[in-house]
Amino acid sequence: MEPGDAARLGPGRAAWALPPRLLLLPLLPLLLGRGLRAAASASSGAAAEDSSAMEELATEKEAEESHRQDSVSLLTFILLLTLTILTIWLFKHRRVRFLHETGLAMIYGLIVGVILRYGTPATSGHDKSLSCTQEDRAFSTLLVNISGKFFEYTLKGEISPGKINSVEQNDMLRKVTFDPEVFFNILLPPIIFHAGYSLKKRHFFRNLGSILAYAFLGTAVSCFIIGNLMYGVVKLMKLVGQLSDKFYYTDCLFFGAIISATDPVTVLAIFNELHADVDLYALLFGESVLNDAVAIVLSSSIVAYQPAGLNTHAFDAAAFFKSVGIFLGIFSGSFTMGAVTGVVTALVTKFTKLHCFPLLETALFFLMSWSTFLLAEACGFTGVVAVLFCGITQAHYTYNNLSVESRSRTKQLFEVLHFLAENFIFSYMGLALFTFQKHVFSPVFIIGAFVAIFLGRAAHIYPLSFFLNLGRRHKIGWNFQHMMMFSGLRGAMAFALAIRDTASYARQMMFTTTLLIVFFTVWVIGGGTTPMLSWLNIRVGVDPDQDPPPNNDSFQVLQGDGPDSARGNRTKQESAWLFRLWYSFDHNYLKPILTHSGPPLTTTLPAWCGLLARCLTSPQVYDNQEPLREEDSDFILTEGDLTLTYGDSTVTANGSSGSHTASTSLEGSRRTKSSSEEVLDRALGIGDQPVSSRGTRLVFPLEDNA
Amino acid sequence: MERQQRFMSEKDEYQFQHQGAVELLVFNFLLILTILTIWLFKNHRFRFLHETGGAMVYGLIMGLILRYATAPTDIESGTVYDCGKLAFSPSTLLINITDQVYEYKYKREISQHNINPHQGNAILEKMTFDPEIFFNVLLPPIIFHAGYSLKKRHFFQNLGSILTYAFLGTAISCIVIGLIMYGFVKAMVYAGQLKNGDFHFTDCLFFGSLMSATDPVTVLAIFHELHVDLDLYTLLFGESVLNDAVAIVLTYSISIYSPKENPNAFDAAAFFQSVGNFLGIFAGSFAMGSAYAVVTALLTKFTKLCEFPLLETGLFFLLSWSAFLSAEAAGLTGIVAVLFCGVTQAHYTYNNLSSDSKMRTKQLFEFMNFLGENVIFCYMGLALFTFQNHIFNALFILGAFLAIFVARACNIYPLSFLLNLGRKQKIPWNFQHMMMFSGLRGAIAFALAIRDTQSQPKQMMFTTTLLLVFFTVWVFGGGTTPMLTWLQIRVGVDLDEDLKEEPTSTQEANNLDKNTTKTESAWLFRMWYSFDHKYLKPILTHAGPPLTTTLPEWCGPISRLLTSPQAYGEQLKEEDVECIVNQDELAMSYQEQATSPCSPPAGLGVNQKASPQTPSKDNIYEGDLGLGGYELKLEQTPEKFQYALPTKGPCQNLCKHTHIYLQRHHSDFHSNPGEKPLTRKRKREQDRELGSGKSSSWTEYAPGKQPLANPLLGDLIPLRQGLDTEKY
């Protein structure tokens, strides 16, 4: 383990050496660099010298050719997507469920990749290697004086010396190879934002504790287990002599981190279509969304792990804690950033009457959400994570302030963006298997990785579920656990993280392995979801509005456990205490401040800040207050009830009788009360039991409203 | 040591990337500010500043701040390497810097005198976009949206005039501006402000062509808000949209005009090559755009994609984008292709989409258009200060101002005069003045100017263009409302009460020789519309008569294959009935009209009666009625109309808008579905009965209050009045 010079750039030096101008290009990163077509052609009209005209003509032609190739390569992708859409329609039309659109996109990508790889003539790029000794570092832009003319060059990336020859390969293959930062700056943000924006499901908040546990603890567990297993595999490979370059423990951990980002989009789509159990859906969806955020930050903090001493790959406590600090810092920073912009958007939409102009409102919403990303990136946080939390906050607060039209507009806009971006990434994955030119296939490593991800997933789901079941009232059933274990698909995020840095040998091997894992999981596991669902006896066709059956089931389990329940309750109570606090705070202060719903602040805030409260309370709340006195008072009353019942529930151990009626009546009132009901809902979700004991009291006022 | 160095470089790149984020963030904030300000303005009904104007103001302020408030950090690219080894500039460059190989990508060529200012402010340099972004990212959605929302009945009514203004007008304007500017350039050479030989006539023409792209987005927004006369709106909108396409292609063909010997002497071969280029590129782009739209239409027609609006929207978006990319890949102009793709999509594909997708696509492109437009205008404001190679030349700017006014006048007034000879509905003087006034310059002119700022003349042009855009957007845009009142142009025109216009135009239309001119020019359009109606619409959409009836016998299998099952009347018998009856009436009334001399305006009257909300299929009538009032009587006999409008929704709309009373029958027909198409008389009788029965529901439609001078609707008046009397 003697670190050489090349090893120092091992943990992704070039990965974070980001091409500078990239963020500038919002949509069509490929179409750039054609600026000279018109330029050269225009100047050719005025050109006086013959010799230079010839030269210019050559340059112009080349530039035009390059632009044309750019267009063709982008066109390839778009036609691929078009084809995917049409095939998917056929599949959906015929109700074929074994192949999801993402899987299909990958297949088409593969086919085109094969064609590009073996069907196009290999033209070599015009690369010239210059030796410049007068400078000791690379500049971002370079002016080159070529026979009296000045040309500007921009830094594209660093090339390890061994790869110089392979750069001059197929021009077309190079054209269809994107800058990996495209994924992080253009394709992933809408996907992640959409995930956050559509998280606003009651069941998500009901299972928040479990989801957080799976996402944070689970990802960490899985990362470490995969990392350790892979380290074993690497050692083995070294023994066998299959390893031709260095591979350190941090690399293994990095691999663990990137491969821990699950992306069960295929499974979720099937769940959604079949209306599988909502709790399971919420658990999986929530886990996968937060998972991605954790994995990104985790991988970047592993990269940032740089021990101070000579041995850069030995364990160093200081560096380790620094990495942990970085993880926490980046995560909380991104979280804050996202939440703050979400809150600002909510305030802006609340206090302006922007909802008269849905277009302006939508544009503002979009720009603010995008600003989150940019702001986080500019501050050195992780934009994708910030965007995720921004999405959640937007859904929770801003969404309530938007006009009806803007709501559907924003939803549809991000849906379209998400759909396009996702399929784009997956078809690129298929393409990359053949067009990426630095694959390192190592069978031992790949087999080891397959074993490791299953073990990692198992070591993540089963123990955590066991611990969570101790505290949960709705137990996570064995079939749910199996299903979650099964749904450990890898997708866009793992791929994007892996492709971000493919400079070193270890990273290339990781990338190849990740690609294969994604293929395997999406096709095999994704295709096996429907059989698995029926085999595991998971209820399908659950109307989200009638979820009492699982409640009953789990209550039976709970009653069967008998003696455990008291202890479980206490654990629950403790964890619920935090959420109760948060929800009462949210309902009493945040919701009224940020949205038009909730009780007016003047009633919830103490008297001494009355002026501020009056200022912040939207006039609508007051308007509502007089004519809708009854409803408001109902809610205030029920709120009171809730808090009361929370207090009571410690006494009553388990009364499951009324829960059914309570939740159904809530569903009934859901249509009439959009936002204020959610508070109740959530409060109910978390404190199911207390409500159930007093269920009858809750039902009546709500039914009056409905 | 080495490591530290790498650290530095890494840090450098970090900073770089963050600055990339910061730049975009600046734009985002500017846009957010603009949106909020615009909301304030809209809320208070200030109309003197449009959102684009606001975006420019904010851009200017930000540019000022960036220019004078930031510390000028040195840009790193100062070093110039001499490479004697290289004979030409390769696309990628591998540079070996102390054993580390870096890959550099070719960006652009820099003319010699730009190297020094290049070393100035790094932030300013950062805030400068690659001009190709405008052409590849920002403009396509704007142009596509324009094409996609062109589908207004009035557009097709005024198609001839719009095409004339767009093609001839742009050419005239280009040449006039070019000539005037050439004069000014000569004057500048005399005055010693310019070296002789720097500024050629082709450059002047280039300036003329880029300056010919009008973009009256500000004016149109105000028109839209105030409901200004629709004909005027359509003329302006259609002109500006097609104008852009023409100007782009024209600019390109001028820029490739390269005579063999003397680069600035007239060379017939090169000239004709340029002309050929213009025609080729224009036709090619047109074909490419419409081909993609046709493919989309066919795909949406023959798949049941409408079950999944998301997929449908995705497909629509991707195929429209493909049109752009294919055109670019084929060496054509993507923007022009996208424009015609948009027009065709709106004409055919739109009818096949599910209602959800219709909304989605409209909103999506509206949104993209909004963002793109504001980004461009914001950037314009910014560019005035951040662009580092401005050349302000007072004489040239003055000349340009003069030239665009003269050119606009030369474009509008003579063409309007010529058009008025042939038009039934004259373009009155106040419209002409308004069109003259609305010669704003906007995004396209700017994008064309910024595309090439290498040589000195081009930089001068860019600066001038920028100033012209500022001036026109602020002054003209702000002056629109006063101008409207001063010119006494009707505002607040409700789409349904367009009939007021009728009497005057009827009188004018009486003139026979004008009518013949009209029919001649309309002949082409009539051909096209009957072709469109009989073949294209049935092939590409679910509307129109089934192909089996319109195509000759021998291609029976093909026609059966291409006709959508919905086009056959059988399935939708009950719903059809109303429309068929309605159709009969329309056709018959047209036959009646044919005898009266003033029929075409009457046709227009029918059109205007139908409000534009009527979604799609009534476009057939719009076109038909608007352009060839005569041919209907010849071809569209009741039998042919049997299947004319088989689908349900639009049909009902048509019924609602043209013959409102038919709606009352809807429930009636559903109750006895076997009923055969009624004759007109029976129908009317039934109406009377029904109307008397349900007079309460008539109140909202009762048009008896407004004067109905329309001869076509004349025969309905007694009925309605009867109903009214019955009601009271």
Outline of the structure:
The complex is a heterodimer of chains A (706) and B (728). Chain A has 706 residues and is mainly α.
Query: What separation lies between the terminal Cα atoms of chain B?
Result: 100 Å
**What structural class is derived from the secondary structure elements of chain B?**
mainly alpha
Morphology call of chain A? globular
Low-confidence stretches of chain A: 1-50, 546-574, 625-706
Q: Tell me, rounded to a whole number, the average pLDDT of chain A.
A: 70
Specify the helix fraction band of chain B: 55-70%
Please, how many helices of chain A?
Answer: 31
Describe the main β-sheet of chain B briefly.
2 strands, antiparallel
What oligomeric state best describes the polypeptide chains here? heterodimer
As a percent range, the share of strand residues of chain B is: under 5%
- Main β-sheet, spatial strand arrangement of chain B: 2-3
Label the overall shape of chain B.
Answer: globular
Amount of beta strand of chain A: under 5%
Average of per-residue pLDDT values of chain B: 69
Structural class of chain A: mainly alpha
Based on CA atoms alone, the radius of gyration of chain A comes out at 28 Å
Helix percentage range of chain A: over 70%
Low-confidence stretches of chain B: 1-9, 496-520, 569-728
Task: Set out the fold topology.
The complex is a heterodimer of chains A (706) and B (728).
Chain A: H1 5-8, H2 36-46, H3 50-93, H4 101-119, E1 127-132, E2 141-146, E3 149-159, H5 164-167, H6 171-175, H7 181-197, H8 202-206, H9 208-240, H10 249-259, H11 265-274, H12 278-303, H13 317-351, H14 358-378, H15 383-401, H16 404-435, H17 443-471, H18 478-486, H19 492-500, H20 505-527, H21 529-535, H22 548-561, H23 563-594, H24 601-604, H25 610-616, H26 619-625, H27 629-649, H28 659-670, H29 676-686, H30 688-693, H31 695-705
Antiparallel strand pairs in A: 2-3
Helix pairs in contact in A: 2-3, 3-4, 3-16, 4-16, 7-15, 7-16, 7-19, 9-10, 9-12, 9-17, 10-12, 12-13, 13-14, 13-15, 14-15, 14-16, 16-20, 17-18, 17-20, 19-20, 23-29, 27-29, 27-31, 28-29, 28-31
Chain B: H1 2-44, H2 51-69, E1 80-82, E2 92-97, E3 100-110, H3 122-126, H4 132-148, H5 153-157, H6 159-191, H7 201-211, H8 217-226, H9 230-255, H10 268-302, H11 309-329, H12 334-352, H13 355-386, H14 394-422, H15 429-437, H16 443-451, H17 456-478, H18 480-486, H19 502-509, H20 512-540, H21 547-550, H22 556-562, H23 573-595, H24 599-609, H25 619-627, H26 631-635, H27 638-641, H28 649-658, H29 666-671, H30 680-693, H31 695-698, H32 711-714, H33 717-727
